[in-house]
């Protein structure tokens, strides 16, 4: 029952998309091609999960989703560039059967693969036979059954060309963002945030402006807003929404048809009114795509996954300043889970965690990275997530520096314990947090 509930949103998106494809392209043939593509996508992704495993089966799929979103950006800019002309030819004439079939099959393949990823276990591996067959059958039945109700969809509401592409891409983005390993919105927000952070850093350094002498504290507080996660969120939303907004604007700015050759005023008004009414109807596709993208962003910001996030255990150091954590005791360090600890010395405190990587190595890292504010990490399956920017980090890369990876701490395994230098831990925590905390690190 739980398995069925997980894919219901995916199948609903698929059931909404196929009638539009059938009505906009080649009718029943489109539904058949979409059904075949969906089954192929389910089968292909399951084979990758079975024979490759890990994060590798998700990377090409995520890359393809990113590419089609970039292509939508290009198409939207082109549509806006042509907005001064009359209705574009690609909207006025239906595509040929080969183009329609290729669009239906490729959309079906992506939708099938994205839906199967929703069922993939967190620790990798193929989907079991019964859920796999049930999903393939459900997707194909929905696609074939969509050919009949598609006949009753008003022709004027069936988008073509770039508005249809916006609708297809937005549905696929909803399906992708429901799987955190395929999520695009959170990484987009993080890149925006990182770009703004780096730009402000470089600007202040190039202008040789130190921390506070030239600014009052309240002015510096406003500058500090550029270092909050809200900057990444709103910047990501702007990049997320602009393509469909450009397409809607391009439709709205289409030039009215010439009526100079029509003598009768009533005929002129009828022709213009009909064009305006049809133009308003064609705005339905990009506006509905806007709603779908909002749903995708919401799923990305508030995922349904529950993360393993234990309360930090307070540890102390030996007289020599060494923190010694037994492999077995209150916690089992080698059970593959993330285990958090905190160390306090006087007024100084640092948070860190210890975990066993898939390579069998015990690593120690800060519960923070060198980019984001130190809100910590949680674990789900074979990845940890940064709570600040929602970036997923595969367990294979935990313990390695760079990006949003937790900052590694030098440690050693002596006998049945992990040994960490307490002063190194505190110094690394403070130097990291000093850069990433709100309003800090903008000057040197």
From TrEMBL:
Transmembrane intervals: 32-52, 64-81, 129-150, 162-182, 231-253
The alphabetized UniProt keywords are: Membrane, Transmembrane, Transmembrane helix
Q: What is this protein called?
A: DUF2318 domain-containing protein
Superkingdom of source = Bacteria
**Domain named Membrane iron-sulfur containing protein FtrD-like: residues:** 333-426
Organism, by scientific name, is Geomonas oryzisoli
């Amino acid at each position: 029952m739980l398995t069925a509930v997980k894919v219901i949103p995916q199948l609903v998106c698929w059931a909404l998309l196929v009638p539009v494809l059938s009505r906009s392209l080649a009718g029943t043939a489109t539904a058949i091609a979409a059904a075949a593509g969906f089954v192929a996508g389910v089968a292909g992704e399951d084979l990758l999960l079975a024979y490759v495993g890990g994060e590798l089966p998700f990377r090409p799929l995520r890359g393809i989703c990113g590419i089609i979103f970039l292509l939508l950006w290009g198409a939207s800019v082109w549509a806006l560039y042509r907005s001064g002309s009359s209705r574009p030819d690609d909207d006025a004439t239906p595509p040929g059967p080969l183009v329609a079939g290729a669009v239906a099959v490729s959309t079906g393949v992506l939708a099938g693969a994205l839906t199967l990823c929703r069922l993939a276990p967190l620790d990798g591996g193929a989907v079991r036979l019964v859920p796999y067959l049930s999903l393939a059958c459900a997707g194909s039945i929905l696609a074939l059954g969509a050919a009949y109700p598609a006949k009753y969809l008003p022709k004027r509401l069936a988008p073509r060309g770039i508005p249809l592409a916006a609708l297809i891409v937005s549905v696929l983005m909803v399906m992708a963002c429901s799987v955190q390993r395929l999520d695009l919105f959170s990484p987009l927000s993080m890149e925006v945030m990182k770009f703004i952070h780096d730009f402000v850093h470089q600007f202040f350094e190039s202008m040789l402006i130190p921390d506070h002498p030239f600014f009052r504290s309240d002015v510096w507080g406003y500058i500090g807003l550029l270092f909050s996660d809200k900057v990444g969120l709103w910047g990501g939303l702007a990049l997320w929404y602009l393509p469909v907004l450009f397409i809607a604007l391009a439709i709205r700015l289409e030039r009215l048809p010439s009526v100079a050759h029509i003598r009768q005023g009533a005929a002129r008004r009828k022709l213009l009114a009909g064009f305006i009414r049809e133009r308003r109807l064609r705005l339905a596709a990009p506006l509905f795509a806007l709603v779908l993208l909002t749903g995708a962003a919401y799923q990305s910001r508030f995922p349904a996954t529950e993360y393993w996030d234990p309360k930090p255990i307070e540890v102390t150091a030996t007289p020599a300043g060494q923190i010694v954590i037994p492999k077995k005791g209150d916690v089992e360090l080698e059970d593959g889970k993330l285990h958090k600890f905190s160390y306090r010395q006087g007024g100084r405190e640092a948070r860190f965690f210890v975990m066993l990587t898939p390579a069998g190595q015990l690593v120690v890292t800060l519960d923070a990275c060198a980019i984001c504010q130190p809100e910590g990490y949680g674990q789900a399956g074979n990845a940890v997530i940064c709570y600040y920017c929602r970036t997923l980090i595969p367990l294979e890369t935990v313990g390695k520096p760079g990006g949003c990876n937790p900052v590694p701490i030098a440690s050693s395994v002596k006998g049945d314990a992990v040994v960490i230098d307490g002063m190194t831990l505190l110094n690394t925590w403070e130097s990291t947090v000093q850069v990433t905390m709100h309003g800090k690190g903008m000057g040197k």
